[in-house]
């Protein structure tokens, strides 16, 4: 028997509770893992609170991220004792996830824990950090150089945003961090590397088709009218890496930035990211993130604290990452 956070649905409402479950109840998979840490992402928050239609079947153990030690494996790529990390692949949505002391998973979904990174640090990074690294790499690959001008990060107080600010700063970019809580989070964002902090309200007015050119590039985690405003302000030949929809999945913009300023809008997904690209991103994260990131931008809870944090993250009240110790 082991402990897990289990979601059930009663009268169309999601009910989250900590239960003792048996190993035989775990879904099928190639690798059995003793879970050390999971983490709380925005998607996890939507699943646990029932505010979003995330979970596809009940009962469900949430947790789209986890790290731990292989206990058993029928796949030759992994042996008992190996340290692994898991993000994405629909885990915590359609397959029992990381908020339990044990997990059984498909070997194709796993990545060896990079040398130099602890399990706790991996969850301080998690899906959010992996997504941020993929966004930053998209800007680099598109030719956005540190001397080209400011790069703006929207939703900078969140998990993806805070890592993106840190990574861009480490690579020498001038970063403008956009947050809805500048008074509260401004100091931390500057410690992470932001050159300046901007209140989100400046991005919530309807965008004109084209506005003053300000940004050499952008990482957007918000979507909707915030992304539309960013697109209208990106420099000629600039690039926006978009990975989130915290503000909505609509995009009230025009073709003008794309056809008159040659702006590129790149979609970034980490859920189905292939193994080689995923492994490279994890290695790059390990190299780039300074020790100060782990000290400043994370908090740790156990399973008993998850429900409260899930409510807070869906209300935009969490800064940085929440790590769950199993």
Précis, in short:
The chain is of the alpha/beta class and 326 residues long. The protein has helices at residues 42-49, 119-141, 159-170, 182-192, 224-233, 256-260, 275-288, 291-296, 306-314; strands at 2-10, 13-21, 31-40, 65-73, 83-87, 102-105, 110-112, 151-153, 175-179, 196-199, 215-220, 234-242, 264-267, 298-301, 321-325.
Give an account of the 3D structure.
- The protein is an alpha/beta fold and 326 residues long.
- It is built from nine helices and 15 strands.
- It has helices spanning 42-49, 119-141, 159-170, 182-192, 224-233, 256-260, 275-288, 291-296, 306-314; strands at 2-10, 13-21, 31-40, 65-73, 83-87, 102-105, 110-112, 151-153, 175-179, 196-199, 215-220, 234-242, 264-267, 298-301, 321-325.
- Strands 3, 4, 5, 6, 7, 14 and 15 form a seven-stranded mixed β-sheet that branches. A six-stranded parallel β-sheet has the order 10-9-8-11-12-13, sandwiched between helices. A two-stranded antiparallel ribbon has the order 1-2.
């Amino acid at each position: 028997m082991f402990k897990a956070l289990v979601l059930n649905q009663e009268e169309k409402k999601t009910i989250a509770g900590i239960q003792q479950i048996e190993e035989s109840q775990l879904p099928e998979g190639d690798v059995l893992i003793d879970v050390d840490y999971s983490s709380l992402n925005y998607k996890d928050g939507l699943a646990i609170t029932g505010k979003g239609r995330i979970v596809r079947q009940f009962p469900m153990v949430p947790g789209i991220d986890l790290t731990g030690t292989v206990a058993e494996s029928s796949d030759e790529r992994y042996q008992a004792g190996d340290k692994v990390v898991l993000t994405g692949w629909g885990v915590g949505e359609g397959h029992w996830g990381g908020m339990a002391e044990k997990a059984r998973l498909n070997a194709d979904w796993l990545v060896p824990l990079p040398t130099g990174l602890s399990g706790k640090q991996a969850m301080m990074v998690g899906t959010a950090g992996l997504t941020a690294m993929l966004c930053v790499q998209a800007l680099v690959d598109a030719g956005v150089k540190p001397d080209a001008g400011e790069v703006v990060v929207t939703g900078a107080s969140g998990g993806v945003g805070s890592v993106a600010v840190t990574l861009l700063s480490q690579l020498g970019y001038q970063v403008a961090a956009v947050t809805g809580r500048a008074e509260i989070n401004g100091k931390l964002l500057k410690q992470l590397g932001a050159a300046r902090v901007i209140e989100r309200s400046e991005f919530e007015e309807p965008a004109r088709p084209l506005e003053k050119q300000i940004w050499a590039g952008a990482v957007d985690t918000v979507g909707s009218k915030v992304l539309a405003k960013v697109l209208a302000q990106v420099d000629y030949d600039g690039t926006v890496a978009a990975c989130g929809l915290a503000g909505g999945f609509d995009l009230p913009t025009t073709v003008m930035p794309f056809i008159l300023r040659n702006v590129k809008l790149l979609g970034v997904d980490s859920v189905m990211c292939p193994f080689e690209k995923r492994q490279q991103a994890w290695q790059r994260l390990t190299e780039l993130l300074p020790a100060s990131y782990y000290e400043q931008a994370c908090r740790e809870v156990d399973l008993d604290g998850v429900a409260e944090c899930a409510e807070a993250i869906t209300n935009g009240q969490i800064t940085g990452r929440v790590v769950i110790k199993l």
